[in-house]
Amino acid sequence: MALAPTPPPPAPQRPTMRHSSAFLLPSPAPGGGGGGDPDDDAATVALVVLNQPLPRFAPRLWSRAAVRVCADGGANRVFDGMPELLHGGQDPDEVRARYKPDVIKGDMDSVRPEVKGYYSNLGTKIVDESHDQDTTDLHKCIDFIAKNSSVANKSNLCILVLGALGGRFDHEMGNINVLHLFPNINIILLSDDCLIFLLPRTHTHMIHIERSIEGPHCGLIPIGMPSTSTTTTGLRWNLDNTSMSYGGLVSTSNIVEEDKVTVTSDSDLIWTISLKN
């Protein structure tokens, strides 16, 4: 009598990675959480400022960050932009002293000499990497935070990047490439209009939607490689083992319908969602 074939073992269940934009709320989340899992009150925020105009919520994020790094010309944006964002007759130099970067890092081709000298005199660390022309300033800053920062050993580190979107398209694509270069670090690129982050294929993703500040428009973009199978819940047009690729279907202009969105894919995806003014 022939024996029935042994069924294959079930595929291992992927761990769940949780995401939240609670760091953008006007008041800190209970317990002081800064990002990641909305139920995790120990999340640690690092802030990177690139060379684009500061978004309106920059002062709020600055106050919640454990370390603040300006990428080269990002120091100019803080120097010029923080006094403009903080209305009410405050003295510009008092504002600049209060919003002093911990580090200015990059190839130093964009930061103005007077700005670099001003912050250096206030104790900001200047890290000149003009010898390295193979990596972007954002790559240099992320690598610095991951390797040298006092928060580097935090497993729940969240790096918020201001000024990564907008401006030159090649800069934007370089910044998105950094997300793929550091898939194990929670990096969120922010502008006044939207935020984006990477959804690594190694996890199932639970995205908590803060409806007061984000949505409803969202997208899932297979930048880097095609996806042969992506499944979602919580969207108006959910994907069900759907293939996505450039030259084929890309899930843009989707709509968030529920407070939690789940995403499972066989490929790394970029998640993007609009921010409300």
From TrEMBL:
All residue ranges annotated as the Thiamin pyrophosphokinase thiamin-binding domain in the record: 203-269
GO molecular function: ATP binding; kinase activity; thiamine binding; thiamine diphosphokinase activity
Involved pathway(s): Cofactor biosynthesis; thiamine diphosphate biosynthesis; thiamine diphosphate from thiamine: step 1/1
Record localization: Cytoplasm, Cytosol
Region of interest (Disordered), residue spans: 1-40
Source species, domain of life: Eukaryota
Bias (Pro residues) ranges: 1-13
Signal peptide: none
Pfam families in the record: TPK_B1_binding, TPK_catalytic
EC number of this enzyme: 2.7.6.2
Catalytic activity annotation: thiamine + ATP = thiamine diphosphate + AMP + H(+)
NCBIfam families according to UniProt: thi_PPkinase
The protein's name: Thiamine pyrophosphokinase
